[in-house]
Structures are given as structure tokens and as C-alpha cells.
Amino acid sequence: MAQQPFGGCWHPDDVKDWNPANDPEAKFNRSTVALQPRFQDETVMANANQHYDGQVAACLTMHPMCSQCPSQGADNFVGYNPTYWQYMDLLIWWAGSAGEGIIIPPSAPVTDAAHMSGVKSLGQVFFPPSTFGGQYAWVTQMLTKEGDTFPYAQKLYEIAKYYGFDGWFINEETAGGYSSAWGEWISYFYQLAEADGLPMEIQWYDCSTTIGSKLDMMKQDGASFFANYGSPSASNIASQMGALTGAGLSKQQAFESIYFGIECAQGGIGGNGSYIKNCFPTDEHKGSIDLFCPEYPIWKQVVESILGTDDAMGDVAYAKMDQVFKNESRFWVNVAGDPSNVSGRSGSTNPGFANAIAERSTIQTLPFVTTFSAGLGKARYVNGEVRGTHDWYHRGMQTIMPTWRWWIADNTDNLSIDMNWDDAFNMGTSLKVTGKLSANADHLTRLYKTKLAISAGDKLELTYKTNTTNSIEVQLAVSENANAFTTFAATETSNVNGWSVASIDLSSLAGKTVSVIALNFKSAAAVAAYEATLGQLAVYPAGYSPVAPAISNVMAQAPLKEEISDIRLVWDADLTADFDHFNVYFTRKGVKALVGQTRQLAFYIPKFTRDGESEKSLSVSVAAVTKDMVESAETELTLDFPALLAPVVTVKAAKTLVKVNEEVVVEAQATNYPESYEWTAPANAVLVGTEGNKATFKFTAEGMYDLKVKVTNATGATEETSVGLRYLRQKNLF
Questions:
Q1: Are 84 and 328 a contacting pair, CB within 8 Å?
Q2: Quick check: do 12-37+48-355 and 368-540 share a fold?
Q3: H or E element: which one contains 316?
Q4: pLDDT of amino acid 707
Q5: For 454-546, where are the E strands, in sequence order?
Q6: What pLDDT score does 196 carry?
Q7: What Rg, from alpha-carbon coordinates, does the chain have?
Q8: What is the spatial distance between Cα 707 and Cα 734, in angstroms, rounded to a whole number?
Q9: Which of 108, 425, 504, 633 has minimal Cβ neighbours within 10 Å of its Cβ?
Q10: What are phi and psi of 621, to 5 degrees?
């Protein structure tokens, strides 16, 4: 079998000679989305408590076993896909164990999703406590120095550079594992990065609540410190920030150099309110935050009972993930699910990060296109057409979700917006707007914080469905005009597979900068049960007509098997800024299905069974998709099934100790599509009857018997197999 590709999970000996050429899973685990730059706009804030200064790191465990995290998601519905990237600055891939591996790069899909929104992605180097199998030898091995070089620092830099993530979290919990040599090690790591012009980050953790003797190490540009749980007291925050600014760092550098740890796995979704507010008071930020495992109460506690079961797909999974998205909103936004609502600041629980953090955004170049994809689906859609019908999740197939979820002005009609996987225009999800509309009432819904310079001929396209004609307006705020809105009717200009497409010329805003993209839901007559589904939103530069990258060298890493196969598909392509993702199709006996979408130059098709000897071959094809969601021509690969071999047969009896004249059922288990079975009864054995691959025998005398069967398949080859029924003795039975 080709075998499921997994993310890396290594011990030091596994990486000392690592290079992509000897890593068969390199293409599956390589991010293709560069870290996108963010901008700040203090003129557009959801509430007065928001500030940009404090940083938020999220330490997330996204799979039960770090050595078996699928490289690109799976055909189920319950993977954890973080979607509130606008409130994060660092994603730390939390994993590692003495038995599985202590060096764990983040999976490529999570790095792709993080990078789209400007979030750095860090891998994990975990030195466990000795009580959990940690070995001091691993620490000394990692700190190996040869002349002026640190070979393991170089190797970890090479891994981060090739895989496309942004550095490492060093989790040093092995007793005695700290050494001043770590400062040199980190400095050497940064020298390598600087030589390539790649900004990298190292975050350090050793269970300490204060920086102490590691101050010089933390003063290095790009280095940061995770202060242990319990550290975010007001006094300790002031003390540690003061130590950094006293050592010559600016206040913003101090925010980026120490993160105060909050234990969310035990604290839950609504816990740790005092710690959060100590770091993020309403008037100004005092410190940054490291969140340990917020995914545990958000996701894992909800789905852990169905992980690895049939219920990971279908209605049970849909209900569970609906709750996960509700939990995620409560944790990152607030109880109200409205970033403009600040009522949560008055209690003792987690007020929601929208009540403290100014939403970050990367939307400052054209084209900007979102399909409102959360990186999962009940089906796979291409421009409103269902082309795949299996549940799936793939973190890297997210697109940028709305900056504000949900900021609806004067929402007295209680209009609501939810994730929708019952329909989509592209990928797997859309946004569903439901509720009522009072006559002529505005429901201004700010969606995206942007910094888009508009030129003549630029256009906005909104793809939607609604039960009320002319009920959607596009409203664009312009920064040069104090963020005042200009209104455009979202009138259908074309229809694609049942979806209305409104194409809006933005030439009237030429020379201006769009700071907010909003929609207004409004009807001249009252609507008691309003519905709208948002499928895609795009802003294109004038005349946008991208060229898709050419795909070459499509190949499977292993041949098909006679019966059960899987496919590790890889290919080459020179990716450009206009590239968005690849669509992977699978055609068997004339039936074609979209089985995957990915941003990597590889895709895994899980196990499938050949449809009998008549299925001689199948084909897989890959199409490149540009930012405007237009597919290129497909590049196809035909794979032939091998000729059938003679059956491999195993004969098993229901029991091997029987009475004389007692009947026993014997089964022939055969591979390679058997067509007939011919049984031979030895002396003193009677063939009572046959059904399919089973035969019933009885024996007229005690003894030991070999039974023979001849199995024939379409190749004409046969094979005789015999197995003994032992100790068939009458005297043992009475």
C-alpha cells in the first residue's frame, strides 16, 4: 500500500541527516502560502476596549497522536479548524512525547491557514520530564557544537525553511536541560535565517514564571518567552515587562518578547477572566498572552467520543461541529457573539478576545477573494456545482472568514449569521443569514476590515442566494472620508448554477481606499422569515484574467494493488501569486468525482477496493485553480491495475475438535476475486453441502484430516490449499 502520509514526528537521530530528497512525505507537508503582512487601522474598531499592542499566542493540539496526524486532513467532518485568526499572532503546534517523537513541525494545512491571516506558525521541540520518558541526552545532542556551528540548529532551520513555517517552540522540561549554550544555539539559528532574509521566531518555555537568567536570550530579535501558568498576576506582568524595557527593549518589543501563560484546558471556555483582564485592561494593554490548549474545551471535549468512529461523519458529526463553532465564538468573541458588545467586561469570566484585541487583517492587495470556507464540508463544490459527496476536513482549504463575527448595527430584528454546510458555492461552506426584516429597516453588517486602494475598472462580485429580491446592498467605507459608507445595489447581473452574482463597478471610488466591506440586509416590505446565503465575495483589479500555473510530472508514489489500493499523488508546478489551490479528481469506470482540494503539490487518496477484474485502470487528474476560482485544464494520469494473480487462500474451520458425525463449517478466504470453489473430501469425510466460499463436512471416524479446496479466478490460475482438523477423537468428547 502507498500508506497515509503523516506530519513529521521525530527524535534527534531522525533529523540529523534530514533533507527533502530523502523524505517521501516532503511535498505533503510543505506549506505553499507565504506569511501575509498585516496592517493596523485604529479608525475602525468594533469597541473602545480594543488595542493592537498585546499579542496572543495559541498553543493548539489538533490530533490525538502527534505521530499520526494526517498531512492533509481526512474524509470525516470532525477535524479542528481554528477560524478566529484575527485575534491570534502566533500558532504553536503543541505536540510531542518521548515515545513518538520530540521534534514536530506544524502540518502544512494549518500553516497555510494561519499565514493567510498573518499568523506565524511554530513547530515544537519537546524535552519531556524524566518521569514521562525525557532523556537528558536529547538535550545535549541538540546542543552539539561543531566549531562555530550548531548542526541541529541548522537542521531545524532547514526543516522550517523547506516546510514553510516560521520557527520553533522549545519546550524544555527535562531536569537540568537549560544551559547558557541555548543562547548561542538560538543566535546561530537566527544567523542562518538572516542570511536568507527569512524572519524566524523561537519561543522558549521551561516552567518558569519569570525570565530570570534568560533575559539576554530573550533580547534577541525574534526570541520570546512563555511564562508559566499563574504568571499573569498584575504585579508579575508589570515586573517582567519592566525587566525587558529596563534592558533596552521598546514597549512593543517587550509585548513580543514575553507571553503570560493561561491554562485553558482546565480553565474552560469561560474561565481565566481575571488573567485575561490583567493582561488586557480596557484602557491599555499591559502584557501578551500564551493560551494553552483552548481547543480542548472548544473542540476536543465535544467530539472526543466520536473520533475514529462512524459517527465522525454524518448527522452526529454535523451537530457536534455546530457546537464547536458556537464554542469558538464564545471563546474568541464573547457571550453575545458580537464584537461590538462589551457587556462581558463586567463579569469575572473570559470577556472574549474581541473585547480586548483589535482585529488583525491582511486584506490590502487585489484580488481579495473569499468563499467563506471553514475548511470542511458535507460535499465539495465548484462554482455552485456538487462534484464530491463525501464529508471532509482540510484546514488548509480555509479562506479568510469575516473580520467581525457578527457586527450587525441596530439589530433589533435579531438577524443571525451562521456557518452553513448544507450549501456552498466553492469548497464546502457558506454563510446563512436568517431572521426577520422589518420594513425599510437597515441591518448594516460589517464583514471585513480592509486597506484596498481602488482604481478605475476594479470590481466587486458578490455571489448569493436569497428568498427576497433586492434585499442586499453592498456598503463600502472609505478611509479618506472618515470611513463613511458608499452604497451599491447587489443586483443580479448573472446566474451561475442557481447562485445570483452581482458584479459592481468600483470606478466611482477610484483613488480611494476601502477600509470596510459591509452588507446591508433591507427590504421595503417586512419579511417574517428572511433567508440569504453568501457564497463568495471578491474584489478584482481591472481586467483581472490570471494564468494558472502549469502542472507537470504527475505521478503516484506506488503502483496499484490487485484488490485494495490507495494513492499518494505528487506533481510539480511553479506557483504564482494568482494561484489559489488544486482540485484533484478521481475517475473510475466513467464516474468522475472531486476527491480533494489542496494547496500542496501532493494529495492522498485513501483506500479503495477494485471493482472486480473488469476494472482494468482508473485515472486521477489535477487542475490548478486561480484566485478567481477558475479551473485550468486538467493534467491526467492513468493508473493500471496489475493482472490478477492466482488466489491466495486460507482455510479455517469453525472449530477443530468435533464429534464423529458432527457437522462442521469450513471457510475458504481467498484474495484476487475468486469465482469458484471446489472442495475435496478425504477418506472418512463427507461433504454435506457448499454455499459460496463455505463447505459443510462431517467425519465418520476419529482422526486428523486435511481438507482441500481449489479456488479459481478470472485469470484461470488455481491453487490447492489444505489445513488440518486436529485431534478429532471420539474418546475425548464423552
A1: yes
A2: no
A3: helix 315-332
A4: 82
A5: 459-466, 472-478, 484-489, 494-496, 499-505, 513-521, 527-540
A6: 97
A7: 30
A8: 25
A9: 633
A10: -145, 150
Of 417, 200, 203, whose CA–CA distance to 291 is shortest? Answer: 203
Q: 513-553: per-residue pLDDT in tens?
A: 999 999 999 999 999 999 999 999 999 999 999 999 999 99
Measured between alpha carbons, how far is 578 from 547 in angstroms, rounded to an integer? 7
Q: Which class would CATH give 551-640? A: mainly beta
Cα 160–166–168 angle (5° rounding)? 75
Mean predicted confidence (pLDDT) in 294-306: 97
User: Using the 8-state DSSP alphabet, how is residue 611 labeled?
Assistant: -
Strands 385-388 and 564-573: unpaired
| Per-residue b or e along 621-647, where b marks 16 or more CB atoms closer than 10 Å to that residue's CB | bbbbbbbbbeebebbebeeebeebebb
Q: Where are the domains of the chain?
A: 12-37+48-355, 368-540, 551-640, 649-733
Rounded distance, CA 499 to CA 532, Å? Answer: 11
Residue with cell string 494520469: 637
Give the separation between CA 293 and CA 287, rounded to whole angstroms. 19
> Per-residue b/e over 6-15, b at no fewer than 16 CB within 10 Å?
bbbbbbbeeb
Asked if residue 361 lies in contact with residue 449, where contact means CB atoms within 8 angstroms, the answer is yes
**Nearest of 187, 70, 207 to residue 128 by alpha carbon:** 207
pLDDT confidence of 732, banded at 50, 70, 90?
very low
Superfamily of domain 12-37+48-355: Glycosidases (3.20.20.80)
Per-residue pLDDT reduced to its tens digit, 636-657: 999 999 988 888 888 888 887 7
Q: The CATH number of 649-733 is which of 2.60.40.10, 2.40.50.1020, 3.40.720.10, 3.20.20.210?
A: 2.60.40.10
d(CA 34, CA 296): 28
Measure the N-to-C terminal CA separation of the chain; round to a whole number of Å.
50
Strand order in the sheet with 664-670: 649-653, 664-670, 694-699, 685-691
Q: What is the pLDDT of residues 675-724, one digit of tens each?
A: 899 998 888 889 999 999 999 988 888 888 888 899 988 887 776 666 56
C-alpha cell at 611: 471493482
Query: For domain 368-540, which CATH number applies: 2.60.120.260, 3.40.390.10, 3.10.129.10, 2.60.40.1180?
Result: 2.60.120.260
Confidence of residue 731 (pLDDT cuts 50, 70, 90): very low
